[in-house]
Write a structure and sequence with these properties.
Protein name: Putative peptidoglycan binding domain protein
Helix content: 25-40%
Strand order of the largest sheet: 1-6-2-3-4-5-7
Pfam families: PG_binding_1
CATH class of the largest domain: Alpha Beta
Number of helices: 6
CATH topology of the largest domain: endopeptidase fold (from Nostoc punctiforme)
InterPro entries: Peptidoglycan-bd-like, PGBD-like_sf, PGBDSf
Length: 235
């Protein structure tokens, strides 16, 4: 059982009626906020330590789920959401990809328009509905002011690339190759699909973290061989 499914299961134990599908979206966020309000916890809609502790207690206050039985959260919700779309291609999977991108602002047909910013925005708004996003999320470099400074290529931070004054790329950091000085990004419009690719570290201008979600260290994703990418791979 994943942490996300456990979270939904425990919310249902406490009276919520949500789908236990492991997807953290508006339904789960609303249930979390309702639970937090009922337990006098700040209603952030995020499963922080205080909320998880309260969820471990049974609805009749008599039993407590042992800490060892709480699954580890291996990805924050926005990275999990992007990971669920891995492999979607702008041509082959155009209908499914477009339907997903419409959860955000949606620039248009991903086969005709750049959609890296569109993909990041969708992952954020689906899982962190209270998180402000750039006014023009489609321009990759606009994400350099998103949230707060992550201080470096922290796993799950939003990595922003500048190719030129007008051109850029944005994705979610999933690893860092210190030897080759390359950052691994999971994102859209990478070889025309949602993939994991590596980019030169010196092209990054920002690493940002959602201001509504607490900092936490997450493990790097094991992606096997990660293809190197450059400007041409993100056009």
């Amino acid at each position: 059982m994943t942490f996300e499914t456990w979270l939904q299961m425990r919310l249902n134990v406490h009276g919520a009626q949500i789908t236990e599908d492991g997807v953290i979206g508006n339904e789960t966020t609303a249930a979390l906020k309702a639970f937090q309000i009922a337990r006098h916890i700040k209603p952030t809609g995020i499963a922080d330590a205080a909320t998880v502790k309260a969820l471990r207690i049974s609805s009749d206050q008599r039993r407590r789920v042992p800490t060892r039985d709480v699954p580890t959260q291996t990805m924050p919700p926005w990275l999990l959401e992007m990971n669920r779309r891995m492999g979607l291609h702008e041509g082959r999977d155009n209908r499914a990809l477009s339907a997903w991108l419409r959860f955000g602002s949606f620039l248009g047909d991903p086969a005709k328009l750049p959609w890296c910013g569109d993909a990041v925005e969708t992952a954020i708004v689906k899982t962190l509905p209270d998180e402000p996003v750039p006014s023009n999320p489609f321009w990759a470099q606009a994400w350099k002011t998103f949230g707060i400074d992550a201080g470096g290529p922290l796993v799950a931070s939003i990595g922003v690339i500048r190719w030129s004054p007008r051109a850029g790329h944005v994705g979610i950091v999933v690893g860092y190759d210190a030897k080759r000085r390359r950052v691994h990004l999971m994102g859209g419009n990478q070889q025309n699909a949602v993939t994991i690719s590596s980019f030169p570290e010196d092209k990054f201008i920002a690493y940002r973290w959602p201001k509504t979600f607490p900092f936490r260290q997450y493990p790097a994703l094991r992606a096997g061989s990660v293809a190197p990418a450059d400007f041409a791979a993100t056009r």
